[in-house]
Task: structure prediction
Amino acid sequence: MKDTDLLIVGAGPIGISCALAAQKAGLDYRVIEKGCLTNSLFRYPLEMQFFSSSEKLELEQIPFVSTAAKPSRSEALEYYRRVVSAHQLKVQLYEQVTRITPTDYGFEVCTPLVTYQAKSVVLATGFFDLPENLDVPGETLDKVTHYFNQAHPYSMQKVAVVGASNSAIDAALACYRKGAEVTLVVRGPEIGQRVKYWVRPDIINRIAEGSIKAHFNTQIKAIYPKTIELTRADQTWIEDNDYVIAMTGYRPDLDFLARLGIPLEGPMKKPVHDSNTMMTPIKGLYLAGVICGGLETHRWFIENSRAHGTQIVAHILENR
Result:
C-alpha cells in the first residue's frame, strides 16, 4: 500500500505536464503508465512528423529544439524523455491500473503490483490503445493491422490502406515510395480535409497519375488470406491483396470511465467535467488531454491541453 496526494494515470506528454505542475506545487504525486514512456508517441510511424511546431509541444516552457520547424517522432520521444529525466519525475512504467475505487481517503487505485491510496486522481490515458475496428470477417487475420510502423515490410506487396486521414495518407505514401502496390479504400468522397497541408497535394497527385489507386465511397466487406472484398453502393468485387493497413482511428476507453461513474454526454460520449478545473462529477477525479473529448478525438492535442495539469493542480491546492 502506497499513499500519495495525486496519482496520474498515463505517462504521455499530458501526464508528464501534470507531473511537472504537481512537482512545482510541492504535491506528493506519482505517474503510472501501462506501457513505455510516452507509449502512444512510441507507436507512431518511425518517420512521422508532427503537424505542430516544436514550441507548441513544449511543457512548462522547457525548450524543445528540433532540426526542422515541425519535429519528428524521434525528436519528440527524446524531448519528453529528457524532461522526465532532468526533473526526476516520479514515473512508474509497465504498471496497468485495473481498478479505481472512491474511498473516505480519496481513491484506492489497484494495479497487479501495488495498491495506492490517493487523495486525487488524474486520468490522462489518451486514446491510441483502442482502434476502431472494421467489424468485417477476416479482420483478425495476421495480414491486418491498425498500426503503421514503417513501410519496408510492405515492399513489393499489394497493400490496401483504409482511411483518408493523416495516418492513412502517410502510410499510403510511405508504402508507395517503398515499392508497394497501394490501394486506398476511403468511405467518403475525397481525401480528408484535415490532412496536413503539405501532404494533401502529394496524395491527390499520386492518385491522379495512377501511382496509387483510390476507391472512394467504398468499404471493405470481407478480408481473405490473399484477397479483399470491396463494396460501393450496390456493387461488390474482389481484389488481390497481401496486407490491410486499417487506419480507421482510435478511441479512448470510455467503458472504463463509465464504470467509474463518469457520465458520458451526447453522440460523442463526452465525459462530463468542469472545463476550468478539469474535475469530473466525482470529487477529486480529474481528466486531462484528449480523453476530455470522448469520441471527438481531434479536439484536444498536446498544444491545447498541456495547461490541463496547471488547472488541476490549482484546483487541488484551492481545496486542501
